[in-house]
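Illustration 12: Cation diffusion facilitator family transporter.
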Amino acid sequence: MNQHAEELKLLRFSIVMAVIYTTIGLTWGLVIQSGIILFDAIYSGVSIVLSFLSLYALKLVKSDSPHPEDVKESRFQMGRTAVEPLVITIKSIVIIVICLYGLTNAVLDLMAGAKGAHNSVAGIGYGVLTALICLCSYAYIRVKGRKLPDLVQAESEQWLIDTVFSVLVMVAFGISFLLEQTAFAHWAPYVDPITVILVSLYFIQVPGKRLLTSLQELLQMTPEESIQTELDEVAKAIANAHQLGQPFVRSTKIGRQLAVDIAFILDDKERRYRIAEFDQIREQIEARLKPLGLSLWLNIIFTHDRHWA
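Figure caption equivalent — predicted structure in token form:
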């Protein structure tokens, strides 16, 4: 199975599991009147829409034409890879908004006098069931998609959040159940909204980090340090092997595409080069960078004048 087909398969699997998860959450939450469960279900419901958005983005990226003769007729002559970080940005913002919504509702619930859920045992059962669903979904997507691009990675992170969320729900209802058996039973109703507040504050960090990364890609900032180091090492090695002088490297990562601009400042102005030599050097650079696992957009120039680098 090729990479595109594997991505589609994992995203569709995620959608099916999210529908099951959301249905369970809405039903369970309404029956026992639990704010934390309803918050969890709403989060999962929105994730279904976001997963469909990921599928659409994958379709757009896949439809990029690899044929140079078709580029002139395309509205996206530099490719559609920016769709990926754009979708991840939207997903991250939506998830942050959901967390803020849950946080606000929980605070208002506390101020109005928390009522709590009607059945702590049922809440514990929900936590156990959904934790298993989420953990299995996360593990499957993580293992199958460990070498796939950011869209799938973001999907697995979403299931990891849901897994921890479900465990916290189980713990919260366990604490509530224990309090109900003691003289501190009047504190039990506050466990539900307090858990929502803590969970919202904690989980807002995950989409926050993903949002920062996707914005860096949309702004065409430099890629992560490990990629920059590899590019510099490859450029210097090629320059030394072919006596090309000092290389200047510029790069940015946009979705699954790594755009690299390398300019070699040729020291020997008397030496004559053949175009075939330059093409051979380009091929060597491409071969050295392929293990990065990204779609390469290479622009390699040779000049005597630093002005053109």
